[in-house]
Specification:
The chain is α/β, with parallel strands linked by helices. It has a single domain, classed as 3-Layer(aba) Sandwich (Rossmann fold), CATH 3.40.50.720. A seven-stranded parallel β-sheet has the order 3-2-1-4-5-6-7, with helices on both faces. Strand 2, helix 2 and strand 3 form a beta-alpha-beta unit. Helix 1 packs across helix 9. The mean pLDDT is 96.
Amino acid sequence: MLIGKTALVTGGSRGIGKAIAIALAIAGADVAITYREQADKANAVADEIREIGKRCVVLPLDVTQDAEIKVVLAKVAEEIGAPTIIVNNAGIVRDNYLRFLSRDDWDAVITTNLTGAFLMCKSSLPPMLRAKWGRIINISSDAAYVGDIRRANYSAAKAGLLGLSRALAREVAGQGITVNSVCPGMIETEMTLDMDETRREGLLKGIPRGKFGTPQDVAALVVFLASPQAEYITGQDISVDGGLHMG
């Protein structure tokens, strides 16, 4: 499906990013993954991808730094080809009630989760424009729709990603490039596995499907959106949430 394509997944060392990177490799793409801190986990993901038979590049990256992004893209292009599938998955949380939320924590989340995606989109576009083909997939969140308590910064950043995706989708639609957002709901990750059982049960009651999703549920949608079969889908935001958000 994606043979001959190169994908880049930011924040690909664990959780949803890891599942996406592996799923793209299974679909035939060579994959570059970036990480902020956990080099050992990122390299373990790369080993899994190589076992599948695909090439993989692992690089450290702070997505808030434009110069670092340009270096990473150049290294990926040199080693496995310029990426024409970009998955902006890197993100952080700095949780607090808004009345106690510091300006530093607001700025950190907005800069990483939203500005980082903008910088990656901007720098990765030239090869796609030359190829007249590309896929940009921004990992947003159901928090963009409904808000999360103690996460005004995160919800604002994820809502901003939806607007960024739609605006860019309009700009590049005529060049064979699609831009879409994927909005996970409650997904089983390290964070949810450590959750208090009472809180976990309370959250489950609000999910019509009656269970949390898996990183693989999100990855399956990303692979579809990256595929030739999704060439007529752009500027969309699609939830993977078991029905938690309907609207």
